[in-house]
Amino acid sequence: MTYTTIQLTTGDGLATITLNQPDKLNAVSRRMIGELKECWEKLADDMSVRAVLLTGAGRGFCAGADLADPDRAQGPMADSGAALEQFFNPVIRSMRTLPKPIVAAVNGVAAGVGMSFVMASDIAIAARTASFLQAFARIGLVPDGGSTWFLPRLIGDARARALAMLAQQIPAEKAHSWGLIWDVVDDHALMAAATAVARRLADGPTLSLASIKKALNAAYDNDLSAQLDLERDLQRELGRSEDFKEGVAAFLAKRPAQFKGR
């Protein structure tokens, strides 16, 4: 598919998705979310892709939903949940369950669903001038894109409530200190740092990383006993993989492992 609002490049195991509406700070239109939905579905099935880097073009990561989008349902009888059900929620689910790690390179403001994209990623690195905003209360809505689920788990209940209700923008340094993101780097170093992390993951033990993601996702709902059982089952499968054999052999030989993702 030829995309018009995003760019997708792939090579050597790494896919890069760039939100590409810089004149709108990459605000998400109906077309963009539709293209993202198809893109994530495609990447899930593409066995040549072993990690994904997500970023935004220009000076913003993503300013949230495009409220000026002519395709957006409007009027007093508009169903604000329909687009969530059809497009936005499937995208968040696809990101969270993708059996490949996702690195978000946050190059500017991440607001609304843009912030959700960051939280749905596995590792987020932000430029020092980036910022984060749950803007929904400013227009009389509830945070969506999984924000009410992610926020309390990442930063705690008190901060989540204040961030959602006050709709206050926070800088990258505070987001980092709160545990919302993994790291903050100088603006000029962002893409190099994020690409290095994504490259390391793409070269890593694909099955292991997918299982780590699966286990951590399940940990939110499992009790300890169920989580122990899951770890047992995943470890049993991974113990039969070629990557495990290579990892042990490399460790004993004191050489870098050459993982093949199988």
Q: Quick check: average pLDDT?
A: 94
Number of strands: 9
The CATH superfamily name of the largest domain is 2-enoyl-CoA Hydratase, Chain A, domain 1
Sequence stretches where pLDDT stays below 50 over 5 or more residues: none
Beta-strand content: 5-15%
Question: Helical residue percent?
Answer: 40-55%
**Sheet with most strands:** 6 strands, mixed
Structural category is alpha/beta
Describe what this molecule looks like in 3D.
This protein is an alpha/beta fold and 262 residues long. It has 2 domains: 6-202, 2-enoyl-CoA Hydratase, Chain A, domain 1, CATH 3.90.226.10; 206-253, Lyase 2-enoyl-coa Hydratase, Chain  A, domain 2 (Orthogonal Bundle). Helix content is 47%, strand content 15%. The chain contains 10 helices and 9 strands. The strands form 2 sheets. The protein has a 6-stranded mixed beta sheet with strand order 1-2-3-4-6-9, sandwiched between helices. Helix 1 links the parallel strand 2 and strand 3 (51-56). Helix 1 (30-45) runs parallel beside helix 2. The longest helix has 18 residues, at 80-97. It is globular, with a radius of gyration of 19 Å. The two termini are 28 Å apart. The model has no long low-confidence stretch (mean pLDDT 94).
List strands and helices in order, with pairings.
Blueprint: E1 6-11, E2 14-19, H1 30-45, E3 51-56, H2 80-97, E4 102-106, E5 109-111, H3 113-120, E6 123-127, E7 131-133, H4 147-155, H5 157-166, E8 170-171, H6 172-178, E9 183-185, H7 190-202, H8 206-219, H9 224-238, H10 242-253
Parallel strand pairs: 2-3, 3-4, 4-6, 5-7, 6-9
Antiparallel strand pairs: 1-2, 7-8
Helix pairs in contact: 1-2, 2-3, 4-5, 8-9
